[in-house]
Amino acid sequence: MLHVRVIAPAALSDEVVRIAVEDEAVANVVKLPGVARSPEGDCVHFDVAREGANAVLEQLRDLGLKERGSIAVEEVDLWISDAAEEAVEAAPGHSEDAVVWEELAARTASETRLTWSYLMFLILAVQIAAIGALLDQPILIVGAMVLGPDFGPVAALCFGVLQRDARLAATAVRTLVAGFAAAIAVTLLCAYASRLIGWIEPSMLDDRPLTSFIIHPDRWSFVVAVLAGVAGILSMTARKSAALVGVFISVTTVPAVGNLAVAIPLEHWSEVGASFVQLAVNLAGMILAGIVTLAIQRAVWRRRPLVVDEIDAAV
Questions:
Q1: Residue 218, CB-side half-sphere exposure with 13 Å CA sphere
Q2: What is each CA distance from 297 to 97, 221, 245, in whole angstroms?
Q3: Residue 206 falls within a domain, yes or no?
Q4: Looking at 83, 98, 113, which one is the last position of a domain?
């Protein structure tokens, strides 16, 4: 269940109330005339089942409330209301499966921001992955995978492509490229310094059976990336954040970047190319799977209300 607060000009507030009252997925409608000061207008509150939120939010947007008022949405963890229960029952599908597209748009937009925290997490993850490659320690590789924040921009890119939002997609690409470039640059400098003082040497990359998978991309790398992309998008749309850990561990983006960054100063040129291919294969698999998964979810949720209406008519 979601709680929606709308600030609307007085001339539009009755229309907002009508939209809320006429929708079976809405309950607990409250109108407070003239209470809003900035922007000025009326305030309307109501609860809506997640499964029916898209239709309501779309109608509110069409009223121009983004420009002339405000729409705020928040999650309701607990409600004690027969009216709310009836609204949930009337809405098609299950709340766990529902995708609120406005919510996903806001989340993916936030994931594309090139912040210091994003850069630091990615730099640290790539550094750990590089050390794991040098020491042939899979546990360090796994730790680096979990720490890497790169799936956020990947999901944003998928959403941007699906929505034909060139700005969002371009921002996601910029964040990915800038983040990986910064991580490679820092790790490269650290690797050069480490070689200069004798901490690392080329032979450390010669024989490492436990982490050699990083430089051997194959069809299974692509298959795993596709599966991880599907799981990652589903974990975001279903709000199952715990599942994202499995996604991070499944893909080899951060380890590939870490291996690439240490292969250059140690002059393992064949590994530079192999690491880049591994990175490209994993990104391509996740992006392709993410776009297809979002497209299927959108098609299903557009079709589901029609199916429910047909069933009700038949009954």
A1: 4
A2: 9, 25, 22
A3: yes
A4: 98
Place of tokens 């032979």: 203
CATH number, domain containing residue 82? 3.30.70.260
Per-residue pLDDT at 198: 92
Whose CA is closest to 100, among 171, 149, 52, 42? 52
119 and 82 both lie in a single domain: no
pTM score, two decimals? 0.84
Q: Are residues 93 and 128 in the same domain?
A: no
Cα angle 113-139-134, degrees, rounded to a multiple of 5: 85
Residues 286 and 192 grouped into a single domain: yes
Contacts of residue 170, Cβ cutoff 8 Å, sequence gap at least 6: 160
> Is 42:105 a contact under the CB 8 Å cutoff?
no
Instruction: Give the residue numbers spanning the domain of 236.
Output: 104-301
- Number of domains observed in the structure of the chain: 2
Rg (CA), the chain: 24
Share of the chain above pLDDT 70, in %: 95
For residue 9, what pLDDT is reported? 95
* C-alpha 104 chain-centroid distance: 8
Pair (115, 86) in one structural domain: no
38-42, 174-178, 235-239: range with lowest mean pLDDT: 235-239
